[in-house]
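Journal club prep, notes for RB
We'll compare a predicted complex against what the paper describes. Inputs for the S-adenosylmethionine case:
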Amino acid sequence: MKDIATPNRTNEILKKHGFHLKKSLGQNFLIDTNVLHNIVEASGVGEEDGVIEIGPGIGALTEQLARASKKVVAFEIDERLISVLVDTLSPYDNVQVIHSDVLKADVRASIEDMFADVRHVHVVANLPYYVTTPILMKLLEDKLPLASITVMIQAEVAERIAARPGTKEYGALSIAAQYYAEAEAVLHVPASVFVPQPRVDSAVLRLTLRETPAVEVLDEDWFFKVFHASFANRRKTLLNNLVHNLAGKEKKPEVEQALAQVGMDPRRRGETLSLEEFAALSDALLKPLGKTE
Ligand code: SAM
């Protein structure tokens, strides 16, 4: 059977269904089977596994996932694509398409309902770029029972998520993601493998979920507030960011004391701190400041 992800077959499908791509929904479809094979391979999905796909489009990645796994559940927001997918995915009996905005969907319930008989559950997707970060943060913060998340996203966002301390890409997004998962940008992808071509370069990011978060903290919400505040203004020192964006001027002595308690130079900048250092700092700031929020 001819793959969906060739330029000819994709054109045929779009024409047959009179489908016009919607830019506002991030509809850039993949037309390169090699890239799709690389994504599936990078995801580590096996025959006994279940896959959640976000945004199946006309089914280019979905069919490769259906061939490689036990079952695929795909969330698609665009109602016009549902009948297209019924047609293009008719050869596969292990795919279920759910017409829903994934940000509003109860993904946990879908996992419980549909994946009782699989080994691991993975997320694999070519994400709509206008909502990359909210989708990834929802999947991670909801603490879903996932083994991994492998997604095509903007190269720049993939680099920020996988960045190490001390680099200019390292920031709140790196820490938020790496708290829950090991992050790796595994493949750089040129714009030419999509129709229409996106204006930015793309990359495949793989997140391997940790069984327990990377660091232990007394209060998770507080930890998130502390590192977000530490990056609020990248030109400011850690002390200034914490005073201005978290504690308030009158609590400057408490911030100085907490920094001293964990042996941290107040002139350091957020981007030099490891997750472990943010965890220690967050715990030290919790008692004097945590209740003032
Ligand atoms: N998987 C296809 C491929 O690789 O060719 C299409 C990928 S395209 C980049 C993104 C897809 O996500 C589109 O089909 C779009 O309609 C869908 N989409 C956009 N926002 C969504 C949302 N919030 N929930 C679910 N699907 C969404």
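Talking point for the session: The longest strand covers residues 181-189.
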